[in-house]
């Protein structure tokens, strides 16, 4: 986990950090979810979540000014529905990889609807696969001297 530093992405095409506009191209899903704060007894807080190419970025709100954390999806194995005795709770969980450090823990989220929950699970699963296979995304060009 790393904390975000620097200006927010510019959504309106104005002058901004070029690295952030590059991130915007890889935006897979963005929206509001409730994120669990604790490990055992979880209290959920509303957070604006962006799923980029191989990471999750958590913001305090939609203006993207206060980034709370940046999580590499390579540290997670899969995402699935979190079974709950309360049918109206549309929860999902990101399960950490056994190879990841002890600082990485499972993440729990709650979506507003069942449809949104399924869309988030699909987006996170796709990005976890992309993060695990990012070596295949790299292109190396070798120039041989004659």
Describe the protein's topology.
Layout: H1 18-25, E1 29-36, E2 44-51, E3 55-59, E4 67-72, E5 76-81, E6 90-96, E7 107-111, H2 114-132
Antiparallel strand pairs: 1-2, 1-7, 2-3, 3-4, 5-6, 6-7
Domain PH: 26-129
InterPro entries: PH-like_dom_sf, PH_domain, PKHO1/2
Protein name: PH domain-containing protein
Describe this structure in words.
The chain is α+β, with helices and mostly antiparallel strands. The protein has a single domain (31-135), classed as Pleckstrin-homology domain (PH domain)/Phosphotyrosine-binding domain (PTB) (PH-domain like, Roll), CATH 2.30.29.30. It has two helices and seven strands; from the N terminus they run αβββββββα. It has helices at 18-25, 114-132; strands at residues 29-36, 44-51, 55-59, 67-72, 76-81, 90-96, 107-111. Strands 4-3-2-1-7-6-5 form a seven-stranded antiparallel beta sheet, with helices on one face. A hairpin with a 7-residue loop joins strand 1 and strand 2. The radius of gyration is 17 Å and the shape is globular. The N and C termini lie far apart (46 Å). Mean pLDDT is 78; it is low at 1-19.
